[in-house]
Amino acid sequence: MRGKILIPVLLLAFILPACEKEEGCDGCGGSILDGYLFNEVTTEDLSALGTIEDIEVGACIRYKLDGAAFDLETVKIVDDCCCDQ
Question: How many domains does the chain have?
Answer without folding.
Answer: 1
